[in-house]
Amino acid sequence: MEDLWVEPHPDALFCCSCRSRFGSAAPIRTFRLHHADPDNNHLAHTKIIKTPSDESIIIYDRHLQCLLQAGVKYSAISHVWDPEVSYMQCLGKDTSQPLSARREVFQSAQFIYHSLLKSGAITELDEIWYDYVSVPQWTDGVKGRILLAIPDIYGCANMTIIRFKDLRPGIVQLLYHGQTTDERVKAVTGICNLDWFTRVWTATEYVRSSRVMSMDGEGNVCPEGADPVFLNKLHEVWSEEAPKHSSIHHLEARAGIGRNLVPWNLGPLLDMGKAKSSNFGQAFALLSKRRCRSNYDFLHALLGLVEPTSDRPLGHDFQQDYTRIARLCLAIGDYSPLLMTPRIEEHHGARQWDIKQGLNDLGIWPLGAQEQLPDFH
């Protein structure tokens, strides 16, 4: 994994287009796959890594502006990390690297690339941004700069591909063509329970994306514009089934709410995706219902959803950085940090609220989106 995740000389990295070093800028690392060793006429590249199946991963580092000016089309992949890969990444480069985790990194990159080629979603001239390959996970300085650039990486991508690894085509078929209430409710909960809907990073990636397609677990690609995260259809089916029950609570009981999610559990993701950003309160409320590996990830996802941009890397003091993001929002006229429900502490044995708990239904921010800037600021 060192070939992908370690940069021995990060200060020496340079842009394949303008040939200048990155300095404090984030390298946007994209890749193509090639079945044979690239010849000398191939585009200038950063490095080539052989996969276990003898394909070559051709990696390009560029400034985002250089990438766009060159007219390079790239697709950004939004996905949930495999638990074993995530654990390997957390342990660091000086620990054992399970063969199955290393295989998952390479095989998933190949699977996605070839599925997109087969579907016609990309051509052999297009490139992929995929964090397994595009973020040197064990080179902290470079990684930190890339994480701050995530909103722009997804916002400028020709297409964002949402990989629903745990989605089977039969569930989608039931959602659109189920004949009975049981079939339709099964489809609704089956999609709401997808891992992709439970992570903080995927919410930020979706909201910031300009064009979206989705891929199921078998590599089938849903066409652009066909409700790629199924949110419209989920709410439509739920609304059609509600009048068939004596109350919404009976429908929720039939769906097994508590062990299953239903559409309202997913939050205002669709509306935020249309707006491409959010106020602080709404963003915090959405992310607090999702899981994250660390407070660090939560803050990056939060910063990616709100309007202010920051070139200053996040530190390791959650409260300090959380307050800094809130103040950045206040400075541009977003006063929602002042209007949120205060922190809920443990009381009389009640479960303590935790941003990593995931999927709670606390009323942190009941006011919705900001409709206009304040008159006096």
In short:
By secondary structure, this protein is of the alpha/beta class. It has helices spanning 2-5, 64-69, 83-91, 99-119, 131-134, 140-148, 150-156, 169-177, 181-192, 200-208, 231-241, 248-255, 269-275, 280-288, 295-305, 318-331; strands spanning 28-34, 47-50, 56-62, 74-78, 127-129, 159-163, 212-215, 221-222. A five-stranded mixed beta sheet has the order 5-4-6-7-8. Strands 1-3-2 form a three-stranded antiparallel beta sheet.
Q: How would you characterize the overall build of this protein?
A:
With 377 residues, the chain is an alpha/beta fold. It is built from 16 helices and 8 strands. It has a 5-stranded mixed β-sheet with strand order 5-4-6-7-8. Helix 14 packs across helix 15 and helix 15 runs parallel beside helix 16. The longest helix has 21 residues.
Distance separating the two termini: 50 Å
Q: How many helices?
A: 16
Strand order of the largest sheet: 5-4-6-7-8
Q: Give me the Rg, rounded.
A: 22 Å
Strand content: 5-15%
Poorly predicted runs are: 346-361
Q: How many beta-strand runs?
A: 8
Chart the SSEs and their pairings.
Blueprint: H1 2-5, E1 28-34, E2 47-50, E3 56-62, H2 64-69, E4 74-78, H3 83-91, H4 99-119, E5 127-129, H5 131-134, H6 140-148, H7 150-156, E6 159-163, H8 169-177, H9 181-192, H10 200-208, E7 212-215, E8 221-222, H11 231-241, H12 248-255, H13 269-275, H14 280-288, H15 295-305, H16 318-331
Parallel strand pairs: 4-5, 4-6, 6-7
Antiparallel strand pairs: 1-3, 2-3, 7-8
Helix pairs in contact: 7-10, 8-9, 9-11, 10-13, 10-15, 14-15, 15-16
